[in-house]
Amino acid sequence: MVNKSIFREYDIRGIVGEELNSESVKLIGYFLGQKVYEKFKDESYVAIGYDARTHSPELFSYLASGFNKAGCTVLNMDMVATGVNYFGNYQTFQIEGKTIQPNASVMITGSHNPSNYNGFKITIDKKPFFGEDIYALGDEIIASNVIIEDNDKNHKIDVKSLYIDYIVKEFSHLKAMPQKFMIDCGNGVADTVLTTILDKLELNYDGLFCEPDGNFPNHHPDPSDEKNLKDIIKALEGDYEYGFAYDGDADRIAFLTKKHNVKGDIMAILFAKTMDNPTIVGEVKCTQVMYDLINESGTAIMYKTGHSNLKVKLKEVNADLAAEVSGHIFFNDRYFGFDDAIYATFRLLELIYNKMDIDKEIDALPKTFSTEEIKVETTEEEKFLLIDKLKKLLEDPPADFPKIVDIIDVDGVRVIFNQGWGLVRASNTTPVLVTRFESTIEENAKLYEEKLNNLIAMAKHELSSTTN
After folding, report:
1. Catalytic pick from 8, 13, 53, 219?
2. Any catalytic annotation for residue 328?
């Protein structure tokens, strides 16, 4: 029996052996393969790569069996970073005497989840396959009784060499720049290409935990959690000027100076300074400072959280860049519009090469006080209902509630106050509400947090009263 919970908003994800096994993964490959084959017929080429997790090659075999049964030709990238996987969709390869281009790709990765998890990030015709498409795929699979035999026939393709050559050429002007920096690959897949590029460019770096190891023996591969950055922070106490850290599949980056842990929304501000009339897409968790400053010289668009959502919006409005606070950075300016932490590394190094004083730029930004993401436990069944209740309560809030200037409901509710904002949104991947608060006055950030949490409690109470 296939577990419905593995079909998530942005990808397919579950515990290997329990939820992701021979039966479920073969079916995923088969039903995905049918969708590719319906569109491309005998020209259906699916490129599959995988991360460093010990079970990823096994899942590749199951997935390939499903795609082969659906009539697709499977292209094997081997172990790659997610950005390299996406890059493969834009390249051509020689297969059995023919020049072909992949028209779908799957990245087998558990990203920053614990080592017993794995999953699939899917692209069809260069577009993310997510949301309702994934949920509908799950319904088809659960209702099926197809038996799929073992057949992992595949054709090896070398995407990594093409990627390395591309980055080295694009950033040849950085060759031998003197600034000393540290990278922390977290035993993920960043260094399937990263140090080769750095060496070809003769850059002045040292590396931590570069060897891919799906057991992640040194620290959890999630650079958005500062406790996983302690080694690189310690390195920055010495001679190193900058630090770069990556999640397990290297689509998220952490960038550090001696003074700052530079979040994705602040990176967006820095990159926007180098663009004429920039259009930047940000998620609802981004600082208001980002929106205000970018709107002074270009256009800032607030949109839903989630890497698939931002990729789609980026292409829809032909933006230059999109950013998530967590370090997903999507370059459409001089690149292909997907999140790639390795590519982002070189765009950041380029800022430094071009004499941008990163700390000075950040220190000059308007001062705000903001919380990290704060999670409120709930259930899968209740989380979206709570957001609906909260919206109703905000129509007529309590007398002591801070004055509301505006409400943005593109993803949950972002309540704009005179001196800041508060966000409450339902996570698309876990049974929690995600909250974040920001103000130009520290006490007000705490006040917004207190008052919105009171409303969440009222929403919970009203919801439980109507369901009991």
Report:
1. 13
2. yes
